Protein 1
Amino acid sequence: MNKDPLKNYVQSLVPLTDDEADAFVAPFEERRVKKKQFIVQPGFTNRHRAFVLEGAFRSYAVTPDGQEHTLQFAIENWWVSDFNSYIYQHPATLFIVALEDSTLLQITRVQEEALKASSHTFETVFRIMAEKGLAFEHRRLLINLSHDAEARYENFLLNFPNFVQRVPQYALASYLGMTTEYLSRIRNRRTRQES
Amino acid sequence: MNKDPLKNYVQSLVPLTDDEADAFVAPFEERRVKKKQFIVQPGFTNRHRAFVLEGAFRSYAVTPDGQEHTLQFAIENWWVSDFNSYIYQHPATLFIVALEDSTLLQITRVQEEALKASSHTFETVFRIMAEKGLAFEHRRLLINLSHDAEARYENFLLNFPNFVQRVPQYALASYLGMTTEYLSRIRNRRTRQES
DNA sequence: CAGCCCCAATGAACCAGGTCAAGAAAAACC
DNA sequence: GGTTTTTCTTGACCTGGTTCATTGGGGCTG
């Protein structure tokens, strides 16, 4: 079981000794997930925080009228969870599904608490992760509020070019807050203009 | 200078001894701000994290075409900052303005780092603040993606009834992602139906 | 307490983006 | 490798929300 990507990720946030890094990743367990398999579903509490070693995920909500709204994509070196469910340990409202055959490193909330309690430095790691996540969501919110559909798509292309090929278009559309049909038209407009 | 509200706030996140609570709030300085005064402006780095003792604030971005987009409101017991500017210490993109004569408790980024370094427990405080903030923004994002204008307004009324009377309607509209005119129509529709 | 200015309300025309339906094109499956 | 299922595209039409312009209140400020 190769935990190096997670070690490298943590080291990029906070410098750790080799021993510290080993201690940090120790409670994480590998989990393999097949494409289309769900790792979180509404009604069940999301007990793990998961780091993607390989593959791709999508978290989304389904409204009463059946529409899907994508909150997050995650590929290698990203985290996935229904964050509200995970930190408050109450039932999830989101689905999280594998978009490809994938491998995760996951930790339970209880183990995470132990990790944070065991070391000031580990507490710092989680603090920084949350702060960066929060800063990220502020940027996303602002883009959503201030840009029209086409500009949001352009922005996504620019910031996450490596996601575009790996996520289905209807999922991307629902992440960007528009319909599949409209995203299709935007793409069409653009590729026609380019030539 | 009364730092009790901040002490109580911190204690509500993590239990602290009186001495610890005193140490935590020590580096915070009081600042009084008049209505319409700016505490953050684009181009200048946001050097402080501020806790509202009294009054109300609004953070917003202005797009090239002159439209304003409100990211956050803050009243008593809330924090305000251009979070991206504050944590990365690079120039702000937001304005933050006082909606009323207000009093803040503010700490610089450097002092905050010292506070976190001095105590595992204080690090935990900031970790929890960031996590709760992140969970909050996830909920907001989902509402923005999945609800139409009227439902977003209803939702705001329900969750933040005490903000409604204190923020100008054009600011609320831009927070909810609609025009002032449309919010006015929604309110009108609703009050007519109620009677 | 008059005057001004900012803010909310309202109407009419307009448009970005959604909806519905029906094919085309990929994947997935056996 | 053919068939079934899922995703993407395209067209015609529709609507929630915007834009622009005007009028009517408050509430500061002198």
Note: The radius of gyration of chain A is 18 Å.
Protein 2
Amino acid sequence: MTRLANIDFSADSLLVARQLIGVTLLIDGVGGLIVETEAYDQSDPASHTYAGRTPRNASMFGPPAHAYVYRSYGMHWCMNFVCREPGHGAGVLIRALEPTQGLELMRERRGLDKLELLCAGPGRLAQALGITRALDGQALDAPPFQLLPGPPEPVELLIGPRIGISKAAHELWRFGLKGSKFLSKGFT
DNA sequence: TCGCCGATGTTCT
DNA sequence: GAACATCGGCGAT
């Protein structure tokens, strides 16, 4: 069992994706509250791991509570947290944060002042937190990562279909923090 | 406010 | 050669 921030990362990615809402993610002290996630699994046609292991997705088949970082559309970085036991190819895409720590550094990296747009999307939050391939395969319980538990009482969740995919697009595997102004897109 | 489009690396057909 | 877990700029509404 791999437990971090009161979450069992050896569990199913759907469960981990729900539990991550409200957790604080910091990289070198910069980041904020996770407000939006999506679950992926090897049995899922939309997942990078559906067709098996490749050099790109190798860390998704590694130990849980590690990072999987990949390049999206040739120009952005996106980050997943690996779930389940090694070999399952499951993970959770971190899609949006409410910025709380290191605001000035994030504004500088993004070239943007507006707080609501600093981390509203997987590519945007990667840029704001300085995420690159250098973090691929890194453990989440060691520097530069910090995961801090969310509130003890359960948060109110929004649930909807995942964004930007064409396969398995009907699955309701996207989760958000109800009432948050920092989501990448609204839940309808 | 909405929708189209181009940028551009990696993987798959 | 096409598709892609995206984003920002542009023009039309």
Note: The mean pLDDT of chain A is 96.
